[in-house]
Amino acid sequence: MEIHKADVQELDRRALTLLGEVVGRMKDDQLPLPTPCPDWTLHGLIRHLVSQNEGFAAAARGAGGTLSVWREGDLGGDPRAAFEASAALVGEAFTEDGVLDRPFVLPEVREGGAFPGRVAIGFHFLDCVVHAWDVAVTIGVPWEPDEELTAAALRIAERVPEEGRGPGAAFDRRLPHPDGAPPCHRLLGLLGRTPRGAGGSC
Predict the structure, then answer these.
(1) 149-202 pLDDT tens trace
(2) Where are the domains of the chain?
(3) Closest to 4 (Cα-Cα) out of 150, 121, 145
(4) What positions does the domain Mycothiol-dependent maleylpyruvate isomerase metal-binding occupy (predicted)?
(5) Are 115 and 121 in contact (CB under 8 A)?
(6) To 10 degrees, what angle do helices 5-23 and 147-157 make?
(7) Across the strands, what pairs with 107?
(8) pLDDT for the residue numbered 11
(9) Distance between CA 24 and CA 133 in Å, rounded?
């Protein structure tokens, strides 16, 4: 089941809020902690989130083709404020007229070609939902996406190909889950994560 293009902007806004609420609860002394993303400490993950927000905002405005715009996130002296600024930037870009049908060039997803805006925003939405779990489990706070966010993220995660997954990639290889596992477990497993200790059943 596809996410209707008129809904993806609102879903992304809510996912970005979910992520922002978790990021807002981290403490400075937690920044060196390892995260479920093997290559990143919490500091590195927050820098990645800032970079991705800035990159998607640039892509929405036709300037996403240069790889450097996806890697220049600067946390300065206040990582939370840096994230908030980047979230405001991408949130504004994603609400511009016609953005759903604009071509987004996403060099970190694939070389050459572009994605329709509604598809690219779906990628950002999925990243926000799942990286919220990465931050939450690192700092020991709840991760509680609602049923609609989880169901929508599952629909996208089910279409992420196995090709190109693994260490250093956006997602690790899929992990099996038992029959009857709750949707949040299935979502995390589809993206190579093992459910553990971030509140609720995940």
Answers:
(1) 999 999 998 887 666 555 555 666 767 776 777 888 889 988 888 887 444 456
(2) 5-139
(3) 121
(4) 16-136
(5) no
(6) 110
(7) none
(8) 96
(9) 13
> Of 14-28, 89-103, 114-128, 150-164, where does mean pLDDT reach its minimum?
150-164
Contact 93, 78 (CB under 8 A): no
Distance, CA of 109 to CA of 159 (rounded, Å): 14
What global pTM score does this model have? 0.89
Crossing angle, helix 42-60 and helix 79-93, to 10 degrees? Answer: 20
**Cα gap 99→76, rounded to integer Å:** 30
CATH class for domain 5-139? mainly alpha
- What pLDDT, on the 0 to 100 scale, is given for residue 118? 94
- The owner of tokens 């870009």 is 93
Nearest to 67 by CA among 120, 6, 110, 24: 110
Name residue, tokens 């995260």: 35
Alpha carbon distances (Å) from 49 to 5, 7, 79, 92, 176? 24, 23, 10, 16, 27
Q: Considering just the CA atoms, what is the radius of gyration of the chain in Å?
A: 16
User: How high is the pLDDT of residue 170?
Assistant: 60
Classified as helix, coil or strand, 34 is strand
Residues 132, 126: Cα–Cα separation, whole Å: 10
